[in-house]
Amino acid sequence: MGTGLAMMAWRCGRVLAGAALMLLAACGNDPGGLDRGSLVANVARGAGLALPGQPTSAAAPLARPEQVLAATQAPVIRAQTAQGDALYLLGVQDNGPYRSYATATSQTVTLRGGLITATRGLGRDLMRADVVQVLDRLTRGSPGPAQRSMEVLDGEDVTRTLLFDCHIAHGAPGLTPRPAQARRLMQESCRGANDDAAGLAFTNSYAMGDGGRILMSRQWLPVSSGAMLLEELRP
Question: For domain 3-234, which CATH number applies: 2.60.120.260, 2.40.360.10, 1.10.3720.10, 3.40.50.620?
Answer without folding.
Answer: 2.40.360.10
